[in-house]
């Protein structure tokens, strides 16, 4: 993970979030792994006299990659091939769904590098696997294989390495065929529920349920059901 690469990812995610033709995003690694995190060679060259405020501001901008995946109205799938560590794991956790190849290996990696973690992993991981398991993974830096990742709820499914791409694309196509307004609303409801009280969640559910009930897509879903045909959703 380099800073220019992360900036490019932010640009691509921003474009995908704004493009009405994009219904789902798949994030995967090029090569033998998903993402091993930051380049330790860059960290080794950091001067102790660095401008902390400037570095924090720049890192916060790079964090938009995780924020966009978590908050964009389109579902995001992480197709995890091979090693997935450090900030790469945080990226995977920012996605809505995680599909892992049998060869996938997960590790937080930060503590062994003398770091505390970034890209939102300390917020997302406890919400995925639970706080006790997240503390174990961050503090003990234990390596987790694909099968164990499935057992602890870190990933949604595990497939053969050669099936990862096709499996991720099938899932993306399933999501892309759904009504976009409903998908976006469900994602917003689930995100809001992570930090809200029950009464507030009910208020938001009521508002979004009524809003989507008056959409063209909702009417199309009802007509398609009655006419026994596949629906054609337009996002309106």
From TrEMBL:
<dbReference type="InterPro" id="IPR001753">
    <property type="entry name" value="Enoyl-CoA_hydra/iso"/>
</dbReference>
<dbReference type="Pfam" id="PF00378">
    <property type="entry name" value="ECH_1"/>
</dbReference>
<dbReference type="InterPro" id="IPR029045">
    <property type="entry name" value="ClpP/crotonase-like_dom_sf"/>
</dbReference>
<dbReference type="InterPro" id="IPR014748">
    <property type="entry name" value="Enoyl-CoA_hydra_C"/>
</dbReference>
<protein>
    <submittedName>
        <fullName>Enoyl-CoA hydratase</fullName>
    </submittedName>
</protein>
<comment type="similarity">
    <text>Belongs to the enoyl-CoA hydratase/isomerase family.</text>
</comment>
